[in-house]
Amino acid sequence: TISGEGFSFRAKKLVLAIPPPLLQGIRFDPILPAAKMQLFQRMPMGAVWKCYAIYPTPFWRKEGLNGLVASNEGHTRLVFDNSPYDGSKGILMGFVLADEARHFSTLPAQERQASITASLVKYFGPQAAGMELYTDQGWQEEPWSRGCYAAMMGPHTLSTMGKELRKPAGHIHFAGTETAEIWNGYMEGAVRSGYRESAILLTMI
What is the reported pTM? Predict the structure, then answer.
C-alpha cells in the first residue's frame, strides 16, 4: 500500500525511481533492509546551477565563435550556445558545478548575475554585458531532486555496498538513473533502468 496526504493505492509490485536521498523521506513499513539504507545514506546528490543569459542575437557567431567555453576560473566554467537554430535570440547557458555551485548558492540573486556576467564578458567581450534577461536555477534547491545530476558514491561505497543498488526489497524494486548499468547519471540511463525493471516485473506478474 502506497499512501500519503489525500491518497492511497494498492499494488502487487512497486518501482521507486527517485533520487536515493529522497528515499529517506519515505516511511517504510516494514523498514528497508539496513544494508540498502546504509547505501542510500552514502549517496548525496551533486550540486549544479544552470544560468541563462538571453540576448537580442547570438552576437558571438558573427565573430566566428561557437559559444562553447571550458575554463578553470569563475563560477561558470562551462558555457554552451543554446540559441535557437534560426538565431532569433542569442542564449548562452552556463553551468556552475560542484564546490563552485555550493558557493554560488550562498550569494544573493544580484551577485549571482554579476558573477556570471563578468565571466561571459571575459569569454565573449563587452557585448555579453548587454543581456535582455538573466535567469538561473539551482537544482539542489528543488524539493523533488535536491541536487543534480545524480547521486554519487564516495570512496569505498561502490566496492562494498554497490550490490545493494538494484536489489529489490520484497515487492519494492528500484530504478532511476543511479541504477543504470549504462549512461548512469543521464536521462538515457533513467530510461534504460525503467526498461530493465519492467522486463523483470513482467516475469513475475
Answer: 0.86
Q: Are strands 14-16 and 172-174 parallel, antiparallel or unpaired?
A: parallel
Amino acid at 76: T
Helix (H, G, I), strand (E, B) or coil at 143: coil
Cβ proximity of 184 and 175 under 8 Å: no
Q: The cell 517504510 sits on which residue?
A: 28
Peptide bond into 195 cis (omega under 30): no
pLDDT tens for residues 127-151?
A: 999 999 999 999 999 999 999 999 9
Contacts of 171 (CB under 8 A, 6+ apart): 12, 13, 14
Rg of the chain over Cα atoms, rounded to whole angstroms, equals 21
Q: What's the Cα-to-Cα distance from 109 to each of 47, 64, 137, rounded to whole Å? A: 17, 32, 10
